[in-house]
């Protein structure tokens, strides 16, 4: 098993099943003891803002706020893409507690580190 899992979510409410899968995999991995770095890009960037995850609905899926809390409680990191944040006028001060904004260089560093498995949804 990989020492760390880096997950990039490229979908939000525009592709709810894909979005939910990414958050679910991240939460399950954290609960299983895997170090997780969850990257929010594109429309998923909105879920790093307070209250936005509660607006997401998908039948038969775990609530997004619960998944996010599980990821954070288990030590997972949540990062919003720098360019995606800028296009949506999202600033670091706007984010949920524990989330950050970082760019492609940090993503590549994390994804290319030894023992890392990367997934894109």
UniProtKB/TrEMBL annotation:
InterPro entries: DsrEFH-like, Sulphur_relay_DsrE/F-like
Pfam families membership: DsrE (PF02635)
Protein name: Sulfur reduction protein DsrE
């Amino acid at each position: 098993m990989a020492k760390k899992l880096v997950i990039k979510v490229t979908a939000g409410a525009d592709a709810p099943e894909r979005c939910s899968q990414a958050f679910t995999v991240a939460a399950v991995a954290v609960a299983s003891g895997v170090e997780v770095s969850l990257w929010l890009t594109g429309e998923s960037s909105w879920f790093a803002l307070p209250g936005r995850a509660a607006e997401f609905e998908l039948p038969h899926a775990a609530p997004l706020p619960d998944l996010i809390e599980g990821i954070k409680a288990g030590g997972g990191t949540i990062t919003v893409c720098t360019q995606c944040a800028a296009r949506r006028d999202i600033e670091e001060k706007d984010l949920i507690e524990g989330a950050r904004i970082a760019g492609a260089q940090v993503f590549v560093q994390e994804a290319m580190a030894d023992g890392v498995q990367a997934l894109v949804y």
